[in-house]
Each structure stands twice: as structure tokens, then as C-alpha cells.
Write a structure and sequence with these properties.
626 residues, alpha+beta, 24 helices, 22 strands
Amino acid sequence: MKNKLEQLEELLGWGGIRKDMVLLILSGLAVLASLIGWSPFPLDMAWIAIILCGIPIILEAVIGLVTAFDIKADVLVSLALIASLCIGEIFAAGEVAFIMQLGALLEEMTVAKARAGIEKLVHLTPQTARVLAKGTEKVIPAEQVQVDDLLRVLPGESVPVDGVIVSGQTSINQAVMTGESLPVDKTVGDEVSSGTVNQFGAFEMRATRVGEDSSIQRMIRLVQSADAGKAKIVGIADRWATWIVVIALTAATLTWLISGQIIRAVTILVVFCPCALVLATPTAIMAAIGNATRHGFLVREGDALERLSKTCIIAFDKTGTLTHGTPEVIAVKNASGGEEDTELFRLAASAELMSEHPLGKAIVRCYKQTVAEELAAVSDFRMIPGRGVCASIEGKIVLAGNLALLSEQGVALPESDAAETYLAQGCTVTYVAVDAAFAGLIVLSDTLRAESADMIHALAELHVEPVLLTGDHENAAQAIAAQLQIGQVRANCLPEDKLQAIETYQRAGKQVCMIGDGINDAPALKKAAVGIAMGGVGSDIAVDAADIALVDDEVRELPHLVALSKRMMTTIKCNMSFSMVLNFLAIVLAISGMLGPVVGALVHNAGSILVISNSAFLLKWKKKQF
């Protein structure tokens, strides 16, 4: 069993950081010992920090210059270290090395190392297929299936390739492709997609798309391409490093030539080290990540909050994100269209008691929660794939299922628009008949999360526009959007449709954040500037594809995360402005000879402490009102 530390490291990708942290602690203790003048060795204790922290910085700078002429902040730090050593300022060299490695470690800790989403998608790919040829059934690897092969799929098996049903009827769980929790009834002539799961009846199908052309393989390629296209943000200190190095060397050289005092030139290099500038971003990010964690968010990418602060559109998946993702009974109507009929509800729930269909289970669960009376004894239960159930209850024959079930059993439906009204609102209707006579309707719907409406309103106050991207049908999507006042809606979305929608907004110059919970959301989560996955109800693949995971599924906290990201960027800008002003003031004092290397190192160390302190205010920051 893994201990808690190992689990945390695996989750955040911090396993390789433990050794760096130990070395950094040793270096910090050595610098402190040097400051107070204590050492058990003949040499200054600051040498430990120089060896542990300084040498890696110098090596990285040299390799970058030699291999790619890459001038980053570590070039200037290396010059300051070498210059300090040359004039005997050991403490200044050790202190600079320690601060720079501290900044590098903080930045490294904000970056997630492990991305297993694509590997998990590969595991979803069906491995075998049942091919029918010359009256016999043969199990072969799925990749060997050819177009037009005749296949058989049994209950509980994944569909091996894309195809069309030629015989049989069933219900297919398409969550891997559409994200919708309810299975879809399929019969002869209907298309089925690879990776989806056959839930009930066996059927035979004709293969139409195989191998790399199948739906699950296309989704894997979408995730890979979307991840490759996401730009990585370069550290501000490294972006400015070339100019900083030029200015520092010019100032140091001119000061040495004019004053003739090399110690002033070395002091300029020391105080010009961008320690506070290097710490400005990672310390603020770490503090903001700590704040986000307290509010239920696991930030898996170091620059995710920086990207989130620039987003102007948040695209939502519907099922499991804005809604609970589980069907609930919202109405029970008898044959005359009257109000809730407890007896009808009892008969329908009793008939569905032995059903494995999610709708049947929902009817039983809701009956027990709302009525809490004993269900009737059931005999002669039959599950009719793609249709519904039939059972004998208290001497009555009860049917519960879709219109096709009642029609095939010769049950006449009265003229009423009640069912059509509910269907137009995106609900699912189960029809009930007793002794070959229509008895009423059980209406089910995926219910909104209580906090969704307030969350959407709070985002609007932050000038972020909500967009709905869902694999559900148009009626259900429009019904949810109307309740939440979401203006832009795209329904019937497959994974590539959601990806294309994100790309459309990006081509228009709009930064998009995507929030989803299903495997089908993985490509869009990768492609968006920021991907947020529902960590509780969401699939592992969606979480792995995202930059941020909402651990407890409390979407009410989303406006806080957006506001926090904007506050974090303000803090970063304040930190950078302060560090640059402090550096230039210290340079002026160093040029005039009023600041020596050791004092200069302490001054810019104090600046680093102030930057860290300012960032720490983000840990408990919260916007007062949403």
C-alpha cells in the first residue's frame, strides 16, 4: 500500500522533487550558518550552498549558451556567482545560489509531471471481435476486422468497430462518445460506434469503419493533437533575461572602468540578479494553488491559473457538470392526465424492480425515496431489449417502456399532448400499461445542480460568457440553457464537434475554458486554453486531460477560481514591478559605492522575502461577493 506522501507525489508528479527539496534545505541551513559565522569546517559554510545550488545553475547556463545560445536568467546568476567568488565574497555567492534554486524549485512544483489520459484511452479500445463467417463464430483481434465483416456483439461487451446493426435490438451506453448517462435504444439500421458498450440484447452488425478510422481511435488522435497545440508559457524572467544581462554587464563594466573598483562592478552583478523577479511568478502561483485547493480545486498545471485569468468564454458540458448526471422522476401522470398517481408509480416501480436499465433503476430509486412504501411481488418478469419490461403483478400484466413496446403489445394510446410537452422539454418518458390498457406516464429528467444558476450569474459579473456544448439532443440542451440563461448552445456534439467549437472561438481571438466530466470531453479539455474536469463524477481520462480538477464537484466555487486567477495576475505584476524598482535602486547605490556585495545580497534577499510575503496573502484571499 502506498503511504499518503507517495499518493500525493503520484497525483501531482512531485516524486522527482523530493531530492531537490532536501538539497535546498541543506543549502539554506548552510547559508544561515555562514551568516552567523558558524562552521565546523575550515571553509565557509556558504560553500555547501555554492556546490549544491550554484554548480547546477552554472552548468545549465553554459549548456544553454553552447548548444542553443539561449540567454536566460541563469546566465546573469552564473556571472554574479563567479564574480563574487573571484573577489572572495563567499556568502554573497552562496546566498544568490540558494535564492535562485528556491525559485526554480517553487516553479517546478507547480508543474504536473504525469499525463496518463491517452494511455487510458488506448485501454478503452476493444481488443477482440466476434466475426461471423460461413455459419461459424470466430474471435479475432479487433484490429484485424475488415470493412463489411459481419460481427456479433453480446451483452456487456464493447462494440469493436464502427458499424450498422443488421439484426437484433438492444440499448447502447454511448457515454464514451457523447457523455450522456442514459443508454440509447438501437435496432436494425442504426449505427453503433467503437468503444460504446452493449448493455442488454445481443445483435449482429456490419463493419463500416475499422482500425484507425474507428470512433475511439479518432478520439485518441484528437486528444494527442489538441495537447500538442497548446502553447507553453515562458517565465517572465527568462523572457527579459537577454536585456537584463546586457544592461547588467554594461553597467558593471562602465562602473569598473570609471571608478577603478571591481567590487562595485561585482556588487552590481549581485544586486542585478533577478532573484525577486524569478520568485515573483512561482510564489504567487503556489499561493493561489493553495487557495484553490482549499476551495476544492486541484491545479495540475503550473500556468493554468495564468491562462484562466485571460479567458472570456467558459464552455460547459451539460450532463454531470451543470446537471447531476442521473435521471430523476419529475412527474407521474395517469391515463386521464391527472396529478401524481401513487398506485401507478407503485406498479411501474414494481415492474422495474429487476430491471438493469438505468431508467428502470431510477424509477425504483425515486419511488423508494418519495413514497417509501413496500413494492409489490413480481412474477414472470421479462426484459425486452430496446423496448422495456413486462411483469405480472398482483394478477395484472404491467408493461413499462417506450412507445414501440406498447404498440407491439397492441396497447392503444389516448389522444394527448402531455408526452410531447415533456419530450419537447428534453425529458424522457416511460409509458405504462396495465392489462393491455394505457395507464399513464412516468417522466424522468436529468436535474440541474442547485448551484448552477447562481454560478452562471456570478461568472457573468466577472465578464465571462457561458456556452453550452453537449452531446444531448436539441430539446434537452435548449431546456437547460433557458433555465440558466445561456445564450450560445451546441447540441448533439461528438468529441470532434466540441473540439471544433473550441477552435472556432480560438480563431476569433477568444480564450476558452472548457469544463466537462466525460471521456468524450477529453479532446476539448486538452484543446481549450484551460481544461477543468469534474473530479468526483468525472472519468479518469477527463481528469488526466484537464489542467484543473474540481475534486468535490462543487461548481459554485468556479467563480471564485476565475476571480482568484485574476487576483493572482495582479499580485504577479505587483511583485515584478517592485522587484525591478528595487533592483534599479540597488544598482544606483552600488554604482555610487554605498552598497557592497554582502549588503547588496542582503538587500535583494529582503526584496525576495517581501515578494514571498505579498504572494502569501493569496493563500486566504476570497472575493467578498459573487
